[in-house]
Specification:
- The protein has 113 residues and is mainly alpha-helical.
- The protein is 98% helix and 0% strand.
- The chain contains 1 helix and no strands.
- It is rod-shaped and about 160 Å long.
């Protein structure tokens, strides 16, 4: 009977040792996972800061680009308006010259008759 109890205790002792080894291994894995999780959180934080910086840069660039485009469009519209005004003046002068030419031709025809 003593041998049976002794064998049973030895079996339980081996089970306890094996369980302790598994617990120690699990504790090591938990610690490694905690370290890995901490590194992931640090990387995530760094990436969030970079995204924020890029968003700020994109916003400021968009405002500057929009302002530049507006300035360019304003200059182009001014040039178009100037060309339109000049075209009206040139057309008026052409019409005046045509009238003078027609008048001279009419006078020449009347003078030759």
């Amino acid at each position: 009977m003593v041998k049976a109890v002794s064998a049973s205790q030895e079996g339980q002792s081996q089970k306890i040792v094996a369980a302790e080894k598994r617990i120690a291994a699990q504790a090591g894995q938990n610690e490694a996972q905690a370290i890995s999780l901490e590194q992931i959180l640090q990387n995530l934080s760094a990436l969030q800061q970079k995204v924020s910086a890029v968003e700020k840069q994109a916003t400021s660039a968009s405002s500057a680009d929009l302002s530049s485009v507006k300035d360019t469009l304003t200059k182009h519209q001014e040039a178009i308006d100037s060309s339109d005004t000049f075209r009206v003046q040139v057309n008026a002068e052409i019409i005046r010259l045509r009238k003078q030419i027609n008048q001279l031709m009419l006078e020449q025809q009347l003078g030759s008759e």
